[in-house]
Design brief:
Blueprint: E1 2-6, H1 10-22, E2 27-31, H2 35-46, E3 56-59, E4 70-73, H3 89-106, E5 111-114, H4 119-130, E6 137-139, H5 143-157, E7 164-165, E8 168-169, E9 177-178, E10 184-185, E11 188-189, H6 190-196, H7 203-214, H8 216-224, H9 229-244, E12 248-256, E13 265-274, E14 277-281, H10 288-305
Parallel strand pairs: 1-2, 1-4, 2-3, 4-5, 5-6
Antiparallel strand pairs: 7-10, 8-9, 10-11, 12-13, 13-14
Helix pairs in contact: 1-2, 1-9, 3-4, 4-10, 5-7
Amino acid sequence: MKVGIIGAGMVGGAAANALVLAGVASEIVLVDHDPKRAVAEAEDILHATPFAFSTRVVAGDYDDLGGAAVVIIAAGVSQRPGETRLELLARNTEVFAAIIPPVLAAAPDAVLLIATNPVDVMTMVATRLSGLPAARVVGSGTILDTSRFRALLGQHLGVAPQSVHAHVLGEHGDSEVLCWSSADVGSIAVSEYGRQVGKPLDDAVRARIDDAVRRAAYRIIEGKGATWFGIAGGLARICRVIRSDERAVLTVSMLGDEVEGVGPVALSLPRIVGGRGIVGTLWPTLTPGETAELRRSAEVIVAAAGS
């Protein structure tokens, strides 16, 4: 599968590297407003292919995206320390207006995979600018937040995160919803699992995990300037699902009519992802409190999109 990546910065470069290490793509084309950066990233990543999988990694221009099944859009200005993802909106909308038309001119059949923050609003922007069916414009959404939630639950409970089934819904940002009510390990509710193994999930532990998930980006940005490894893994996972038409359930973002009476809005719900993008949406059973949080998250995104 051929994958294009627009933006060869930290996220774009890490995503290309993750695709190579996971053997997801047969060809990767990096496009950046700084051609030297794209060439350097492509060369550096190419040198890792003998240790992983045979992948053609090149720098190019929009015309070189022809035949790409997925185009990851990771271009945009970076989030500053203390800046929320939603504050990026005005600056990154201008970037997308310049990017989307040449991408579609070269790769009209590609699935657009949006990674630029604020990702939910940028997914809405990309869908409207492209004119594509909403199902073909996939925002990375809360795939990383869900991964953080599972990793931290697994760490606390002493179990592999792959055995933890838990989801974060709504905005990829401060209003996201950690669905504690449906989180389980091997079909056992996490609260009961914790009781059985002597690692209870009391209010203090839940508050600590919630903060660690919800505020993760701020701490990482403060420490090293940006986040890139986690989201790169998530983007590689989405691409693998698309390549194999896997029909996997992922918490990704898509523009839809409404959520809990609020919309149109793009936010993360459990989505069935296949070869042509999103093929279905699942509506989870939530507590009244989680339902109210999801509605509030939708309101936050809609307000930002309209600002």
